[in-house]
Protein backbone atom coordinates (compact mmCIF):
# COMPACT_ATOMS: atom_id res chain seq x y z
CA UNK A 1 0.00 0.00 0.00
CA UNK A 2 1.70 3.27 -1.17
CA UNK A 3 2.30 5.76 1.64
CA UNK A 4 3.84 9.24 1.37
CA UNK A 5 4.92 11.80 3.96
CA UNK A 6 5.58 15.55 4.09
CA UNK A 7 5.88 18.10 6.87
CA UNK A 8 4.43 21.52 7.58
CA UNK A 9 3.87 23.79 10.60
CA UNK A 10 0.76 24.83 12.55
CA UNK A 11 1.04 28.26 14.17
CA UNK A 12 -1.00 29.23 17.23
CA UNK A 13 -0.33 32.74 18.45
CA UNK A 14 3.38 33.13 17.67
CA UNK A 15 4.23 29.54 18.58
CA UNK A 16 4.59 26.88 15.90
CA UNK A 17 4.21 23.12 16.06
CA UNK A 18 5.38 20.66 13.43
CA UNK A 19 2.63 18.79 11.59
CA UNK A 20 3.30 15.50 9.78
CA UNK A 21 1.15 14.88 6.71
CA UNK A 22 0.64 11.30 5.54
CA UNK A 23 -0.91 10.33 2.23
CA UNK A 24 -2.28 6.84 1.63
CA UNK A 25 -3.42 5.64 -1.80
CA UNK A 26 -5.77 2.69 -1.63
CA UNK A 27 -8.27 0.81 -3.73
CA UNK A 28 -11.76 2.13 -4.22
CA UNK A 29 -13.63 4.84 -6.02
CA UNK A 30 -11.55 7.99 -6.68
CA UNK A 31 -11.95 10.27 -3.67
CA UNK A 32 -9.98 12.45 -1.29
CA UNK A 33 -10.54 12.19 2.47
CA UNK A 34 -8.88 14.62 4.87
CA UNK A 35 -8.58 13.78 8.59
CA UNK A 36 -6.89 15.44 11.57
CA UNK A 37 -9.28 18.22 12.71
CA UNK A 38 -9.14 20.39 9.56
CA UNK A 39 -11.15 23.63 9.44
CA UNK A 40 -13.30 24.70 6.48
CA UNK A 41 -10.44 26.32 4.56
CA UNK A 42 -8.35 23.18 4.95
CA UNK A 43 -11.23 20.92 3.93
CA UNK A 44 -11.52 22.90 0.70
CA UNK A 45 -7.84 22.28 0.02
CA UNK A 46 -8.76 18.83 -1.33
CA UNK A 47 -10.05 20.44 -4.52
CA UNK A 48 -7.27 23.03 -4.69
CA UNK A 49 -4.52 20.43 -4.30
CA UNK A 50 -6.02 18.04 -6.86
CA UNK A 51 -6.35 20.76 -9.50
CA UNK A 52 -2.87 22.15 -8.74
CA UNK A 53 -1.27 18.72 -9.22
CA UNK A 54 -3.09 18.09 -12.48
CA UNK A 55 -2.35 21.57 -13.86
CA UNK A 56 1.35 21.19 -12.98
CA UNK A 57 1.75 18.28 -15.39
CA UNK A 58 1.61 15.53 -12.75
CA UNK A 59 -0.87 12.65 -12.55
CA UNK A 60 -3.31 12.47 -9.67
CA UNK A 61 -3.63 8.89 -8.38
CA UNK A 62 -6.58 6.82 -9.55
CA UNK A 63 -8.00 5.53 -6.30
CA UNK A 64 -9.01 6.47 -2.80
CA UNK A 65 -6.61 9.02 -1.25
CA UNK A 66 -6.55 9.50 2.52
CA UNK A 67 -4.66 12.49 3.90
CA UNK A 68 -3.93 12.50 7.64
CA UNK A 69 -2.51 15.43 9.56
CA UNK A 70 -0.94 14.64 12.92
CA UNK A 71 -0.95 15.25 15.81
CA UNK A 72 -4.58 14.40 15.24
CA UNK A 73 -5.79 16.28 18.33
CA UNK A 74 -4.32 19.61 17.18
CA UNK A 75 -6.81 21.77 15.22
CA UNK A 76 -5.48 22.59 11.73
CA UNK A 77 -6.47 26.03 10.45
CA UNK A 78 -5.86 27.74 7.12
CA UNK A 79 -4.32 26.93 3.75
CA UNK A 80 -0.65 26.79 4.77
CA UNK A 81 -0.67 22.97 4.36
CA UNK A 82 -1.60 22.93 0.65
CA UNK A 83 1.94 22.52 -0.69
CA UNK A 84 2.77 19.77 1.79
CA UNK A 85 -0.48 17.94 1.00
CA UNK A 86 0.26 17.95 -2.73
CA UNK A 87 3.84 16.74 -2.29
CA UNK A 88 2.76 14.01 0.14
CA UNK A 89 0.36 12.64 -2.50
CA UNK A 90 3.09 12.74 -5.16
CA UNK A 91 5.44 10.96 -2.74
CA UNK A 92 2.86 8.24 -2.15
CA UNK A 93 2.43 7.87 -5.93
CA UNK A 94 6.19 7.51 -6.38
CA UNK A 95 6.46 10.68 -8.48
CA UNK A 96 9.10 12.35 -6.30
CA UNK A 97 12.06 10.88 -4.41
CA UNK A 98 11.98 10.99 -0.63
CA UNK A 99 15.61 11.98 0.09
CA UNK A 100 15.19 15.77 0.07
CA UNK A 101 11.56 15.59 1.15
CA UNK A 102 12.48 13.83 4.40
CA UNK A 103 14.56 16.86 5.48
CA UNK A 104 12.24 19.64 4.31
CA UNK A 105 9.30 21.57 5.74
CA UNK A 106 6.80 22.88 3.17
CA UNK A 107 4.66 26.00 3.61
CA UNK A 108 2.27 27.67 1.20
CA UNK A 109 -1.18 27.83 -0.34
CA UNK A 110 -1.76 26.45 -3.84
CA UNK A 111 -3.71 28.12 -6.63
CA UNK A 112 -5.60 25.92 -9.08
CA UNK A 113 -2.85 26.37 -11.68
CA UNK A 114 -0.14 25.32 -9.21
CA UNK A 115 1.14 28.74 -8.14
CA UNK A 116 2.33 28.92 -4.53
CA UNK A 117 0.63 31.80 -2.72
CA UNK A 118 1.71 33.67 0.37
CA UNK A 119 0.19 32.83 3.76
CA UNK A 120 0.23 34.53 7.15
CA UNK A 121 2.63 33.44 9.86
CA UNK A 122 5.56 32.34 7.68
CA UNK A 123 8.19 33.80 10.02
CA UNK A 124 7.02 32.06 13.24
CA UNK A 125 6.58 28.85 11.22
CA UNK A 126 10.17 28.98 9.97
CA UNK A 127 11.41 29.72 13.50
CA UNK A 128 9.50 26.68 14.76
CA UNK A 129 11.02 24.50 12.03
CA UNK A 130 14.52 25.68 12.91
CA UNK A 131 13.97 25.10 16.63
CA UNK A 132 12.72 21.58 15.86
CA UNK A 133 15.99 20.78 14.08
CA UNK A 134 14.91 20.81 10.43
CA UNK A 135 17.54 21.75 7.86
CA UNK A 136 15.43 23.15 4.99
CA UNK A 137 12.14 24.97 4.58
CA UNK A 138 10.37 25.85 1.33
CA UNK A 139 8.13 28.93 1.41
CA UNK A 140 6.19 30.98 -1.17
CA UNK A 141 8.47 33.24 -3.20
CA UNK A 142 6.47 36.28 -2.02
CA UNK A 143 7.40 35.46 1.59
CA UNK A 144 11.05 34.64 0.89
CA UNK A 145 12.41 37.91 2.30
CA UNK A 146 10.42 37.40 5.49
CA UNK A 147 11.50 33.77 5.93
CA UNK A 148 15.12 34.65 5.13
CA UNK A 149 15.37 36.62 8.37
CA UNK A 150 15.82 33.34 10.27
CA UNK A 151 19.38 32.05 10.62
CA UNK A 152 20.67 28.47 10.91
CA UNK A 153 18.19 26.98 8.45
CA UNK A 154 18.19 26.81 4.64
CA UNK A 155 15.29 28.86 3.29
CA UNK A 156 14.15 28.40 -0.32
CA UNK A 157 11.37 30.11 -2.25
CA UNK A 158 9.00 28.51 -4.75
CA UNK A 159 6.82 30.23 -7.33
CA UNK A 160 4.79 27.13 -8.21
CA UNK A 161 4.35 23.44 -7.50
CA UNK A 162 6.16 22.48 -10.70
CA UNK A 163 9.35 24.14 -9.44
CA UNK A 164 9.14 22.30 -6.11
CA UNK A 165 8.73 18.95 -7.87
CA UNK A 166 11.72 19.60 -10.12
CA UNK A 167 13.80 20.57 -7.08
CA UNK A 168 12.84 17.39 -5.23
CA UNK A 169 13.88 15.40 -8.28
CA UNK A 170 17.20 17.25 -8.45
CA UNK A 171 16.35 18.78 -11.82
CA UNK A 172 16.17 22.45 -10.84
CA UNK A 173 16.87 25.08 -8.22
CA UNK A 174 14.60 27.14 -6.00
CA UNK A 175 14.96 30.82 -5.15
CA UNK A 176 17.27 31.94 -2.35
CA UNK A 177 16.64 34.96 -0.09
CA UNK A 178 18.40 38.29 -0.46
CA UNK A 179 19.43 39.39 3.03
CA UNK A 180 20.13 43.01 2.02
CA UNK A 181 17.63 45.28 3.77
CA UNK A 182 17.27 49.01 3.08
CA UNK A 183 17.58 51.54 5.88
CA UNK A 184 14.33 53.09 7.06
CA UNK A 185 13.95 56.68 8.28
CA UNK A 186 13.02 57.37 11.90
CA UNK A 187 9.19 57.49 11.98
CA UNK A 188 6.88 60.05 13.51
CA UNK A 189 8.45 63.45 12.78
CA UNK A 190 10.88 65.44 14.89
CA UNK A 191 10.35 66.70 18.42
CA UNK A 192 11.63 70.14 17.45
CA UNK A 193 8.38 70.64 15.55
CA UNK A 194 6.48 70.83 18.86
CA UNK A 195 6.63 74.33 20.30
CA UNK A 196 6.25 75.07 24.01
CA UNK A 197 4.79 72.45 26.39
CA UNK A 198 8.00 71.94 28.35
CA UNK A 199 6.29 69.79 31.00
CA UNK A 200 4.82 67.49 28.38
CA UNK A 201 8.13 67.23 26.52
CA UNK A 202 9.89 66.32 29.77
CA UNK A 203 7.25 63.69 30.52
CA UNK A 204 7.69 62.26 27.02
CA UNK A 205 11.45 61.99 27.60
CA UNK A 206 10.93 60.21 30.93
CA UNK A 207 8.41 57.87 29.31
CA UNK A 208 10.87 57.01 26.54
CA UNK A 209 13.79 56.48 28.93
CA UNK A 210 11.95 54.12 31.27
CA UNK A 211 9.21 52.56 29.14
CA UNK A 212 6.47 54.21 31.23
CA UNK A 213 2.82 54.80 30.33
CA UNK A 214 1.62 58.36 29.77
CA UNK A 215 -1.67 60.30 29.91
CA UNK A 216 -1.96 63.68 28.18
CA UNK A 217 -5.01 65.87 28.76
CA UNK A 218 -5.71 69.30 27.36
CA UNK A 219 -7.86 71.25 24.91
CA UNK A 220 -7.99 70.29 21.21
CA UNK A 221 -5.11 71.40 18.99
CA UNK A 222 -2.62 71.86 21.81
CA UNK A 223 -0.21 69.15 20.58
CA UNK A 224 -1.19 65.91 22.34
CA UNK A 225 -1.19 63.85 19.15
CA UNK A 226 2.00 65.46 17.86
CA UNK A 227 3.83 64.54 21.04
CA UNK A 228 2.57 60.96 21.00
CA UNK A 229 3.57 60.48 17.36
CA UNK A 230 7.12 61.57 18.16
CA UNK A 231 7.61 59.09 21.00
CA UNK A 232 8.81 56.22 18.71
CA UNK A 233 11.51 58.55 17.37
CA UNK A 234 12.94 58.86 20.90
CA UNK A 235 13.13 55.11 21.48
CA UNK A 236 16.26 53.11 20.61
CA UNK A 237 16.09 50.65 17.68
CA UNK A 238 14.91 47.15 18.42
CA UNK A 239 17.52 44.50 19.14
CA UNK A 240 17.82 41.51 16.80
CA UNK A 241 15.71 39.27 19.03
CA UNK A 242 13.10 42.00 19.57
CA UNK A 243 12.91 42.62 15.81
CA UNK A 244 12.18 38.96 15.10
CA UNK A 245 9.62 38.88 17.90
CA UNK A 246 7.78 41.95 16.61
CA UNK A 247 8.04 40.84 12.98
CA UNK A 248 6.54 37.43 13.87
CA UNK A 249 3.49 39.16 15.36
CA UNK A 250 3.00 41.33 12.28
CA UNK A 251 3.47 38.25 10.11
CA UNK A 252 0.52 36.62 11.87
CA UNK A 253 -1.46 39.83 11.38
CA UNK A 254 -0.60 39.86 7.67
CA UNK A 255 0.73 43.44 7.82
CA UNK A 256 4.37 42.97 6.81
CA UNK A 257 5.83 44.98 3.97
CA UNK A 258 7.24 42.98 1.08
CA UNK A 259 10.02 45.53 0.51
CA UNK A 260 11.18 45.63 4.15
CA UNK A 261 9.83 42.65 6.11
CA UNK A 262 12.07 43.08 9.16
CA UNK A 263 10.68 45.58 11.66
CA UNK A 264 13.67 47.32 13.26
CA UNK A 265 11.98 50.42 14.72
CA UNK A 266 9.46 50.39 17.59
CA UNK A 267 5.98 50.14 16.05
CA UNK A 268 3.39 52.88 16.51
CA UNK A 269 -0.22 51.68 16.58
CA UNK A 270 -3.08 54.17 16.86
CA UNK A 271 -6.52 52.54 16.54
CA UNK A 272 -9.63 54.70 16.05
CA UNK A 273 -11.65 55.50 19.14
CA UNK A 274 -14.55 53.45 17.74
CA UNK A 275 -12.49 50.24 17.81
CA UNK A 276 -13.93 47.15 19.49
CA UNK A 277 -12.51 45.11 22.35
CA UNK A 278 -11.80 42.22 19.95
CA UNK A 279 -9.83 44.49 17.61
CA UNK A 280 -7.87 45.79 20.59
CA UNK A 281 -7.11 42.45 22.26
CA UNK A 282 -7.17 40.15 19.23
CA UNK A 283 -9.36 37.27 18.14
CA UNK A 284 -11.65 36.47 15.25
CA UNK A 285 -13.14 33.24 13.98
CA UNK A 286 -10.80 30.31 13.51
CA UNK A 287 -7.21 31.34 14.14
CA UNK A 288 -7.00 34.17 16.68
CA UNK A 289 -5.25 37.13 15.05
CA UNK A 290 -3.20 39.61 17.06
CA UNK A 291 -4.97 42.81 18.07
CA UNK A 292 -3.72 46.37 18.37
CA UNK A 293 -2.07 45.67 21.73
CA UNK A 294 0.08 42.88 20.32
CA UNK A 295 0.90 44.78 17.12
CA UNK A 296 2.24 47.54 19.38
CA UNK A 297 4.57 45.09 21.18
CA UNK A 298 7.96 46.73 21.92
CA UNK A 299 6.49 50.00 20.66
CA UNK A 300 3.76 52.54 21.37
CA UNK A 301 0.00 52.06 21.58
CA UNK A 302 -1.61 55.49 21.22
CA UNK A 303 -5.27 55.89 22.13
CA UNK A 304 -6.40 59.32 21.02
CA UNK A 305 -9.72 60.59 22.39
CA UNK A 306 -9.53 57.82 24.97
CA UNK A 307 -12.60 59.15 26.79
CA UNK A 308 -14.63 58.22 23.68
CA UNK A 309 -13.52 54.58 23.82
CA UNK A 310 -15.86 51.96 25.20
CA UNK A 311 -15.46 50.93 28.82
CA UNK A 312 -14.82 47.29 27.85
CA UNK A 313 -12.04 48.35 25.51
CA UNK A 314 -10.31 50.41 28.19
CA UNK A 315 -10.66 47.76 30.89
CA UNK A 316 -9.19 45.15 28.53
CA UNK A 317 -5.91 47.04 28.82
CA UNK A 318 -5.46 46.30 32.49
CA UNK A 319 -4.08 42.75 32.42
CA UNK A 320 -1.69 43.25 29.45
CA UNK A 321 -0.31 46.41 31.09
CA UNK A 322 0.73 44.30 34.08
CA UNK A 323 1.72 41.02 32.43
CA UNK A 324 2.92 42.07 28.97
CA UNK A 325 0.95 39.28 27.32
CA UNK A 326 -2.46 38.70 25.74
CA UNK A 327 -4.16 35.32 26.15
CA UNK A 328 -7.05 34.62 23.78
CA UNK A 329 -9.08 31.60 24.89
CA UNK A 330 -10.83 29.52 22.24
CA UNK A 331 -12.64 26.21 22.30
CA UNK A 332 -9.56 24.37 21.05
CA UNK A 333 -6.95 26.11 23.19
CA UNK A 334 -5.36 29.41 24.15
CA UNK A 335 -3.41 31.63 21.76
CA UNK A 336 -0.74 33.76 23.42
CA UNK A 337 0.63 36.96 21.94
CA UNK A 338 3.27 39.21 23.53
CA UNK A 339 1.93 42.68 24.36
CA UNK A 340 4.61 44.66 26.19
CA UNK A 341 3.92 48.15 24.87
CA UNK A 342 4.01 51.74 26.05
CA UNK A 343 0.51 53.13 26.42
CA UNK A 344 -0.09 56.78 25.58
CA UNK A 345 -3.57 58.15 26.28
CA UNK A 346 -4.81 61.52 25.06
CA UNK A 347 -8.09 63.15 26.04
CA UNK A 348 -9.88 66.47 26.22
CA UNK A 349 -10.69 67.69 29.74
CA UNK A 350 -14.46 67.72 29.06
CA UNK A 351 -16.98 67.24 26.22
CA UNK A 352 -17.06 70.90 25.12
CA UNK A 353 -13.24 71.17 25.32
CA UNK A 354 -12.77 74.95 25.34
CA UNK A 355 -9.40 76.60 24.89
CA UNK A 356 -9.65 77.98 28.45
CA UNK A 357 -11.14 76.23 31.46
CA UNK A 358 -13.15 79.32 32.43
CA UNK A 359 -15.05 79.07 29.14
CA UNK A 360 -16.33 75.53 29.85
CA UNK A 361 -20.12 75.18 29.60
CA UNK A 362 -20.27 71.55 30.78
CA UNK A 363 -22.14 70.67 33.96
CA UNK A 364 -19.91 69.34 36.77
CA UNK A 365 -21.52 65.90 36.41
CA UNK A 366 -20.77 65.86 32.67
CA UNK A 367 -17.12 66.72 33.27
CA UNK A 368 -16.87 64.01 35.90
CA UNK A 369 -18.55 61.43 33.69
CA UNK A 370 -16.43 62.27 30.64
CA UNK A 371 -13.11 61.09 32.05
CA UNK A 372 -14.84 58.72 34.45
CA UNK A 373 -14.38 55.92 31.90
CA UNK A 374 -10.75 55.89 32.96
CA UNK A 375 -11.29 53.73 36.02
CA UNK A 376 -9.19 53.83 39.15
CA UNK A 377 -7.46 50.48 38.47
CA UNK A 378 -6.55 51.64 34.95
CA UNK A 379 -5.31 55.05 36.10
CA UNK A 380 -3.26 53.32 38.79
CA UNK A 381 -1.25 51.74 35.97
CA UNK A 382 -0.47 55.08 34.30
CA UNK A 383 2.91 56.30 35.52
CA UNK A 384 2.93 59.83 34.08
CA UNK A 385 -0.02 62.22 33.94
CA UNK A 386 0.33 65.63 32.31
CA UNK A 387 -2.21 68.43 31.97
CA UNK A 388 -1.30 70.57 28.96
CA UNK A 389 -2.23 74.26 28.84
CA UNK A 390 -2.27 76.66 25.93
CA UNK A 391 0.03 79.67 25.80
CA UNK A 392 -0.71 82.86 23.90
CA UNK A 393 1.54 83.18 20.88
CA UNK A 394 3.31 79.87 21.59
CA UNK A 395 2.67 78.66 18.04
CA UNK A 396 4.70 81.60 16.69
CA UNK A 397 7.67 81.24 19.03
CA UNK A 398 10.83 81.62 16.93
CA UNK A 399 12.99 79.67 19.38
CA UNK A 400 13.73 76.15 18.08
CA UNK A 401 13.21 73.41 20.66
CA UNK A 402 15.46 70.41 21.14
CA UNK A 403 15.38 67.90 18.31
CA UNK A 404 14.55 64.22 18.62
CA UNK A 405 18.19 63.36 18.01
CA UNK A 406 19.35 65.33 21.06
CA UNK A 407 16.66 63.87 23.32
CA UNK A 408 17.18 60.38 21.91
CA UNK A 409 20.85 60.53 22.92
CA UNK A 410 19.87 61.17 26.55
CA UNK A 411 17.21 58.45 26.38
CA UNK A 412 19.73 55.96 24.96
CA UNK A 413 22.22 56.74 27.75
CA UNK A 414 19.52 56.29 30.41
CA UNK A 415 18.32 53.03 28.88
CA UNK A 416 21.87 51.73 28.73
CA UNK A 417 22.28 52.45 32.44
CA UNK A 418 19.06 50.55 33.19
CA UNK A 419 20.14 47.58 31.07
CA UNK A 420 23.48 47.38 32.87
CA UNK A 421 21.76 47.54 36.26
CA UNK A 422 19.10 44.88 35.56
CA UNK A 423 21.10 42.64 33.18
CA UNK A 424 21.52 39.70 35.54
CA UNK A 425 17.78 39.65 36.21
CA UNK A 426 16.70 39.78 32.56
CA UNK A 427 14.92 43.17 32.61
CA UNK A 428 15.68 45.81 30.01
CA UNK A 429 13.71 48.86 31.22
CA UNK A 430 12.79 50.29 34.61
CA UNK A 431 9.09 49.80 33.87
CA UNK A 432 9.58 45.99 33.78
CA UNK A 433 11.15 45.67 37.24
CA UNK A 434 8.84 43.99 39.79
CA UNK A 435 8.01 45.95 42.90
CA UNK A 436 9.49 43.40 45.29
CA UNK A 437 12.85 43.66 43.52
CA UNK A 438 12.84 47.44 43.94
CA UNK A 439 12.08 47.17 47.65
CA UNK A 440 14.27 44.19 48.59
CA UNK A 441 17.23 44.08 46.21
CA UNK A 442 17.55 47.80 45.41
CA UNK A 443 16.18 49.63 48.48
CA UNK A 444 16.39 53.42 48.62
CA UNK A 445 17.44 55.50 51.65
CA UNK A 446 14.68 56.22 54.15
CA UNK A 447 14.67 59.93 53.46
CA UNK A 448 14.14 59.22 49.73
CA UNK A 449 11.13 56.94 50.20
CA UNK A 450 9.59 59.00 53.01
CA UNK A 451 7.15 60.83 50.65
CA UNK A 452 5.96 57.50 49.22
CA UNK A 453 5.43 56.02 52.67
CA UNK A 454 3.49 59.11 53.73
CA UNK A 455 1.20 58.81 50.69
CA UNK A 456 0.62 55.13 51.45
CA UNK A 457 -0.24 55.79 55.09
CA UNK A 458 -2.94 58.36 54.28
CA UNK A 459 -4.37 56.26 51.44
CA UNK A 460 -3.44 58.63 48.60
CA UNK A 461 -1.62 55.87 46.76
CA UNK A 462 -1.90 52.11 46.36
CA UNK A 463 1.00 49.71 46.77
CA UNK A 464 1.11 49.29 43.00
CA UNK A 465 1.19 53.06 42.58
CA UNK A 466 4.09 53.25 45.02
CA UNK A 467 6.05 50.68 43.02
CA UNK A 468 5.40 52.58 39.81
CA UNK A 469 6.51 55.85 41.40
CA UNK A 470 9.81 54.20 42.41
CA UNK A 471 10.32 52.98 38.85
CA UNK A 472 9.84 56.51 37.53
CA UNK A 473 12.31 57.78 40.17
CA UNK A 474 14.92 55.34 38.87
CA UNK A 475 14.32 56.64 35.34
CA UNK A 476 14.73 60.26 36.42
CA UNK A 477 17.94 59.24 38.19
CA UNK A 478 19.22 57.56 35.01
CA UNK A 479 18.45 60.66 32.94
CA UNK A 480 20.55 62.87 35.22
CA UNK A 481 23.33 60.27 35.35
CA UNK A 482 22.96 59.43 39.04
CA UNK A 483 23.73 56.17 40.81
CA UNK A 484 20.78 56.10 43.24
CA UNK A 485 17.49 58.02 43.24
CA UNK A 486 17.38 60.88 45.70
CA UNK A 487 14.43 62.39 47.59
CA UNK A 488 14.10 64.96 44.79
CA UNK A 489 13.83 62.21 42.16
CA UNK A 490 11.09 60.51 44.17
CA UNK A 491 9.21 63.79 44.63
CA UNK A 492 9.36 64.45 40.89
CA UNK A 493 8.01 60.96 40.25
CA UNK A 494 5.17 61.51 42.74
CA UNK A 495 4.39 64.84 41.10
CA UNK A 496 3.74 63.03 37.82
CA UNK A 497 1.23 60.73 39.52
CA UNK A 498 -0.51 63.12 41.89
CA UNK A 499 -1.03 66.16 39.68
CA UNK A 500 -4.62 66.74 38.60
CA UNK A 501 -4.80 65.31 35.09
CA UNK A 502 -8.51 65.88 34.91
UniProtKB/TrEMBL annotation:
Protein's name according to its UniProt entry: YifB family Mg chelatase-like AAA ATPase
Family: Belongs to the Mg-chelatase subunits D/I family. ComM subfamily.
AAA+ ATPase domain residues: 210-392
SUPFAM superfamilies: P-loop containing nucleoside triphosphate hydrolases (SSF52540), Ribosomal protein S5 domain 2-like (SSF54211)
InterPro entries in the record: AAA+_ATPase, CHLI-like, Mg_chelat-rel, Mg_chelat-rel_C, Mg_chelatse_chII-like_cat_dom, P-loop_NTPase, Ribosomal_Su5_D2-typ_SF, Ribsml_uS5_D2-typ_fold_subgr
Domain of life: Bacteria
Amino acid sequence: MPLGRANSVAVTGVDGQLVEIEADIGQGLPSVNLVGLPDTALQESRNRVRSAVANSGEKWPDGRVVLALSPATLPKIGSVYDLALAVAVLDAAGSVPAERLAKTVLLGELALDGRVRRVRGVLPAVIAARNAGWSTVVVPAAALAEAGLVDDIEVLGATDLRAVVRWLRGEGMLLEPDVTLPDLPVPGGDLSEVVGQEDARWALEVAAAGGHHLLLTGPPGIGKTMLAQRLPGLLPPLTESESLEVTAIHSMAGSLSGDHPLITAPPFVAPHHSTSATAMVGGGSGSARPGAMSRAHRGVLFLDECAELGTKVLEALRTPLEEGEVRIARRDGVARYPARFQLVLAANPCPCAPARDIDCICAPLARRRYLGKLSGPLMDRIDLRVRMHGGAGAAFDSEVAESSEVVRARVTTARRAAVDRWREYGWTTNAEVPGHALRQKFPLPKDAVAPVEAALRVGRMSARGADRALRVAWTICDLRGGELPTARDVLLALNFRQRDAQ
